[in-house]
TrEMBL record:
Swiss-Prot/TrEMBL TPR repeat ranges: 174-207
Keyword terms: Cytoplasm, Phosphoprotein, Repeat, TPR repeat
Its biological purpose: May play a positive role in AHR-mediated (aromatic hydrocarbon receptor) signaling, possibly by influencing its receptivity for ligand and/or its nuclear targeting.
Organism: Jacana jacana
Cell cycle among keywords: no
Domain AIP/AIPL N-terminal FKBP-type PPIase, first and last residues per copy: 1-63
Entry GO CC: cytoplasm
Superkingdom: Eukaryota
Subunit structure: Interacts with RET in the pituitary gland; this interaction prevents the formation of the AIP-survivin complex.
Keyword Cytoplasm: yes
Record localization: Cytoplasm
GO MF annotation terms: peptidyl-prolyl cis-trans isomerase activity
Protein name: AH receptor-interacting protein
Gene label: Aip
Cross-referenced InterPro entries: AIP/AIPL1/TTC9 (IPR039663), PPIase_AIP (IPR056277), PPIase_dom_sf (IPR046357), TPR-like_helical_dom_sf (IPR011990), TPR_rpt (IPR019734)
Length: 239
């Protein structure tokens, strides 16, 4: 038996990892003892009880599987800075392959992991510094790929948020305007969609066919919606 005072915090982090969450979720930067006093509850009754009444613990460790060296891909939070930089191109490639196979949700998860690696590194740099900008320029294409997945998953408001964030920094990003235009059209922000598609044409006239296709689709949906509304209102007033 081993008396482990700080085990409840460790256990909470492990449970977060198992649930796919940030292992440090809810923790602020301070010493471990301060963490104990900071949290009234860890969110698990058994850990709260153990935190109030520390006692010797016996750990049973079961080996689930053995993986060959190099076959295991660490989660971003567990990587060193150098490992994060090396992992990003590989994760990006895996995301692209999953997307081509039609596995959109899995691809989005890969892009998210790659973005998380770069964001973690970027947080250590001065905003606007050359290193910060270099990392941001690596994040942008990954974020656009992530938005493409979210468009297919019909999560349009997330696409609007991310694309607007990109355009606040890079106002000539054609892909961000195009994806944001599609998201605006999907949620019936007609004026905003037309404005974004117009911006796409102004920046890259060669995309005329793509933009025309999106605008035709929007106009068709508008006519269908107007017809449905007329029928609906007619039925309401005829009652």
């Amino acid at each position: 038996p081993q008396h482990v005072v700080l085990y409840p915090l460790v256990s909470k982090s492990l449970r977060n990892i198992a649930a796919g969450k940030d292992p440090l979720e809810g923790q602020r930067h301070c010493c471990s003892i301060a963490q104990l006093h900071e949290h009234y509850s860890l969110g698990y009754p058994d850990l709260d009880e153990l935190q109030k009444n520390p006692q010797p613990l016996i750990f049973d460790i079961e080996v689930l599987k053995v993986e060959a060296p190099g076959s295991y891909q660490q989660d971003p939070w567990a990587m060193t800075d150098e490992e994060k930089l090396q992992a990003v191109p590989l994760i990006h490639k895996e995301g692209n392959e999953l997307y081509r196979e039609g596995k959109v949700l899995e691809a989005a998860s890969k892009y998210y992991d790659a973005i998380a690696c770069l964001k973690n590194l970027q947080m250590k740099e001065q905003p606007g510094s050359p290193d910060w900008i270099e990392l941001d320029q690596k994040i942008t294409p990954l974020l656009l790929n992530y938005c493409q997945c979210k468009l297919q998953c019909e999560e349009y408001y997330e696409v609007l948020d991310h694309c607007s964030s990109i355009l606040n920094k890079y106002e000539d990003n054609v892909k961000a305007y195009f994806k944001r235009g599609k998201a605006h059209a999907a949620v019936w922000n007609v004026a905003e969609a037309r404005a974004d598609f117009a911006k796409v044409l102004a920046l890259d006239p060669s995309l005329h066919h793509n933009v025309s296709k999106e605008l035709r689709s929007l106009e068709t949906r508008l006519r269908e919606k107007e017809a449905e509304d007329k029928i609906r209102f007619k039925n309401i007033f005829s009652q």
